[in-house]
Specification:
The protein is built from 24 helices and six strands. By secondary structure, the chain is of the alpha+beta class. Strand 4 and strand 5 form a beta hairpin. The longest helix is centred in the first third of the chain and has 19 residues.
Length: 514
């Protein structure tokens, strides 16, 4: 109804314009009728004239099929252009999609598959998604999944047009199962797709599974189903091995890639780590296995190997140890709500007690103990000073034991000592003094890390941003990592905030330069 009203309004506007400017309008109409594609391609023409040229070009092509090839080619090229107004692009696409010729249908389907994962305009994504759903184009499911995997902070997941289209195209099959099937068996790539199309599709499908199956329970059931053919992919065997031996399943695509590196038999150090963790996990009672994630394994290994007093405690004992300890510390609360937390109370340890798993508490204990040693403090304050002097980026890195640094040659008589290892962003990745970007080198050195970290030290007194920003929390959720952020609150004092993928944030209190 609204479109009809708009069209009628457009007609009346044109009529009024003809009355006021008869000669000019007459010439314009003649040009549109004579050379509609020329008018359409001319950015100097008004949007109204170009939209009229779209209608005229298509109607003329319907009467003269010889013109259809050039009209479709022009419409396709211009529909791809994100610089053009959405109304023009949507109109051209709808005309293309209305062509009943079988070859044209296949061509538009292919165009839709290629556009969806790359299209930046949310309005155009909605047009593409709705058309695919309306026409029952199931071959667009992988492209819709890839588009849905992208982060869109201003659009809630429940309102994503890709998700609505996927639900329609899935029919009676649960959406999570549809996505899992694409993950297992991605389609062959189109000729114009990237070389690693299948792996990208698989990773994006796994990211969507993370949205639909936040705990991994559905994936566990599917993987435990003996009817699932292991020959589909080596990745099925890896996931089954992780479930059987480590009792974990990755939630996101980034976490899956992390698991793949840990499970690479060519990496002897990761293989040794896997065997050690598997032996420890096999000894854990059911209550300690509850909520176990990949990020917990190294803290649990460190506790079992070097800090038995932590490892032997149950969840209730770990809670009772940490609660009064943190309560007695200075814990500056973040007040800059625009960048992240909406309420400072979210950083308080007591506010999350019902949600902590045993693995979460072990991780916090191990990290809290590590960051308060003299050696760690000296290094972290040195890094913070370097960061403050560099105005092009925030600094960050990984927290790990001496034994796990690089090739292991840094190991001393105390391989369990916890240290920070700095990875400043590459020059081309630096986004300014208020953002940290994890480099590929850092990610590759994080396989056996306890956590990742970065700084908020732009000013000596920076307490208003003491804690993770929205982007920091999104990174933790996407990567599956436990993280720390160190915030300068005085010349020789920094606040330490812990956060993890499920949104839990705990202010562990301040540390002082020693």
């Amino acid at each position: 109804m609204n479109n009809c009203l708009l069209r009628r309004a457009g007609v009346w506007i044109c009529v009024a314009a003809c009355v006021l400017c008869g000669g000019c309008s007459s010439n314009s109409n003649k040009a549109i009728t004579r050379e509609p594609l020329t008018v359409l391609r001319n950015p100097q023409q008004s949007p109204a004239e170009r939209e009229k040229a779209i209608d005229v070009a298509w109607q003329q092509a319907l009467k003269n099929p010889e013109d259809m090839k050039s009209v479709r080619a022009t419409f396709k090229d211009m529909t791809w252009s994100a610089q053009l107004p959405l109304e023009m692009r949507a109109k051209m696409y709808r005309y293309l999609a209305s062509d009943p010729n079988p070859a044209a249908v296949a061509d538009t389907q292919r165009m839709t598959r290629l556009m969806l994962p790359r299209e930046p305009d949310r309005g155009m994504v909605a047009v593409l998604s709705q058309n695919a759903a309306d026409k029952g184009w199931k071959d667009c499911i992988p492209a819709l999944i890839r588009s849905y995997s992208r982060v869109t902070p201003k659009v809630p997941d429940r309102d994503r047009s890709e998700k609505l289209a996927l639900v329609i195209l899935s029919g009676e099959t649960p959406l999570v199962q549809t996505v899992f099937e694409v993950f297992l068996d991605p389609p062959e790539e189109d000729p114009d797709s990237p070389a690693d199309f299948k792996e990208r599709t698989r990773a994006d499908a796994y990211d969507v599974l993370g949205k639909l199956d936040t705990t991994g329970e559905y994936r566990k059931k599917l993987l435990e189903d003996p009817s699932l053919a292991a020959s589909k992919s080596q990745i099925v065997e890896l996931l089954r091995k992780a479930l059987a031996e480590l009792r974990v399943i990755p939630i996101t695509g980034d976490e899956l890639r992390w698991l793949q590196r840990l499970g690479d038999p060519k990496n002897t150090r990761n293989a040794e780590w896997w065997q050690q963790c598997a032996g420890i996990v096999a000894q854990l009672p059911p209550d300690k296995l509850e909520g176990l994630r990949l990020r917990h394994l190294e803290p649990i290994r460190v506790a079992a190997t070097y800090q038995q007093d932590i490892f032997k405690r149950d969840r209730a004992q770990l809670l009772s140890d940490l609660a009064p300890t943190i309560a007695g510390r200075k814990t500056p609360q973040r007040s800059d709500e625009d960048q992240g937390l909406t309420k400072a109370a979210k950083e308080q340890f007591d506010g999350w007690q019902e949600r902590y798993s045993w693995g979460d508490l072990v991780t916090m204990h191990v990290l809290d103990r590590g960051v308060r040693t003299k050696e760690f403090s000296e290094r972290i304050f040195m890094y913070a000073s370097m960061d403050r002097e560099d105005k092009t980026t925030e600094y960050g890195g990984v927290i790990l034991t001496l034994h796990n640094i690089g090739d292991g040659r840094a190991t001393s008589n105390s391989p369990g000592d916890i240290v920070a290892w700095l990875f400043p962003p590459r020059p081309g990745q630096r986004q300014g003094d208020n953002e940290f970007v994890a480099s590929e080198e850092m990610i590759l050195q994080s396989d056996r890390a306890l956590a990742q970290f970065h700084f908020h030290v732009q000013r000596v007194r920076n307490a208003d941003v003491a804690g993770p920003s929205a982007a920091d929390l999104a990174y933790s959720r996407r990567s599956g990592r436990a993280c720390l952020v160190f915030t300068s609150i005085a010349a020789d004092e920094m606040d330490v905030d812990y956060y993890q993928p499920d949104g839990i944030v705990v202010d562990l209190g301040t540390i002082v330069k020693k």
